[in-house]
Amino acid sequence: MIPISCHSISKSYHNLQQNKTKRVKALQNISFEVNQGEIFGIIGPDGAGKTTLFRILTTLLLPDSGNSTVEGYDIVKEFKDIRGIIGYMPGRFSLYQDLTVEENLTVFARVFNTTIEENYHLIKDIYIQLEPFKTRMAGRLSGGMKQKLALCCALIHKPKVLFLDEPTTGVDPVSRKEFWEMLKRLKEQGITILVSTPYMDEAALCDRIALIREGRFLQIDSPNAIISGYNHELWAFKSAEMSRLLQALRNHPGVLTSFPFGDSHHVTTVHGISANDLVEQLGNQGLKEVTAQKIKASIEDCFMELAGIESYKTTSQEIIQNKSR
Predict the structure, then answer these.
(1) Could you tell me which of 4, 42, 25 has the C-alpha nearest to residue 217?
(2) At what angle do helices 101-111 and 143-155 cross, to 10 degrees?
(3) DSSP alpha helices (H): ranges in 112-163?
(4) Strand 192-197 with 161-165, pairing
(5) Among 178, 159, 1, residue whose Cα is nearest residue 81
(6) Could you please report the per-residue DSSP string of 61-90?
(7) What would the pLDDT profile of 156-177 be if each residue is shown by its tens digit?
(8) How far is the C-alpha of 135 from the C-alpha of 101, rounded, in Å?
(9) 10-14, 19-23, 42-46, 225-229: which range is least confident on average?
(10) Which residues contact 28 (CB under 8 A, 6 or more apart)?
(11) What kind and span of H or E run contains 195?
(12) Residue-averaged pLDDT of the chain
């Protein structure tokens, strides 16, 4: 049985800021499947539709069209069955902030007619880190500790499928790393995990990912397969004047795309234009210490290409046509 099966799911909302008769499309014909024991990531920026998709799959929101099943149960007709076999961790901390760590966990265990002792093996590795603070109010925990408590509460009834909506947003890098290590251990126990994140670097930690933008899936595959499909030579440009360099790159007729990435600008060029020629030409424009190094594309580079986010907000083909005239 396929743990999660989603076919042509669509959802739209009224635009409250503009004309109320106009609807904003949050999801547009979303289809995918998640395999047993897989960590499947939904990767995309804020506002892409990730939370809407999670709320539909966890039976908290009805789709406008399409159908989906979780462990064979229909999300509309059999929502009660689904709620008993899934764990859901929403993006916003939603536990009882005026209850202690231990009290929150006890409440969630009782809701599902179980006890902490019965399923302690599922949360042991996580709860060990929380145990010194078990009498502390949940609202007084650090961001990382809140996420660990929320994960414990989502696991305490031994779910078959775990839904984690942006679980590492706002969490420090060390806690992010620890959280993903926990997910790997949960996967080893046979739990299927659907996780969303706006952090492109976390994509590599998933078995497969779906890149989402404006309610549409751009591509579904393993992280390595998506990176292998990147079909441009990619260069990291640096200069003593990075802001001016970016402007010069975007104005240059030989540049296809240019985006700031950390301490460099990732650049692709029109066919026939070499990076060395570009460095020389930029130097002739008065830019100081311009260098270019060939690099391997990341998931974020692939996302930018698939989404069609270009320097001038046109497609690559249009840029080439414009610059060849």
Answers:
(1) 42
(2) 20
(3) 120-130, 143-155
(4) parallel
(5) 159
(6) S--SEEEEEETTEETTTTHHHHHTTEEEE-
(7) 999 999 999 999 887 888 888 8
(8) 6
(9) 19-23
(10) 10, 214, 215, 216
(11) strand 192-197
(12) 89
Q: How far is CA 131 from the centre of its chain?
A: 30
Tell me what pLDDT residue 16 has: 66
DSSP assignment of 15-28 equals -TTS-TTSEEEEEE
8 A C-beta contact, residue 108 and residue 157: yes
C-alpha to C-alpha distance for 237 and 248, rounded to whole angstroms: 12
Q: Which two tokens stand for residue 18?
A: 């503009």
For the segment 11-39, the average pLDDT, to the nearest whole number, is 86
Please, where are the H alpha helices in 205-298? 223-228, 242-251, 275-284
* pTM of model > 0.90: no
pLDDT bin (cut points 50, 70, 90) of residue 271 is confident
How far, in whole angstroms, is CA 187 from its chain's centroid?
Answer: 18
The residue type of 319 is I
Q: Please write the tens of the pLDDT for every residue from 134-155.
A: 999 999 998 889 989 999 999 9
Amino acid at 259: F
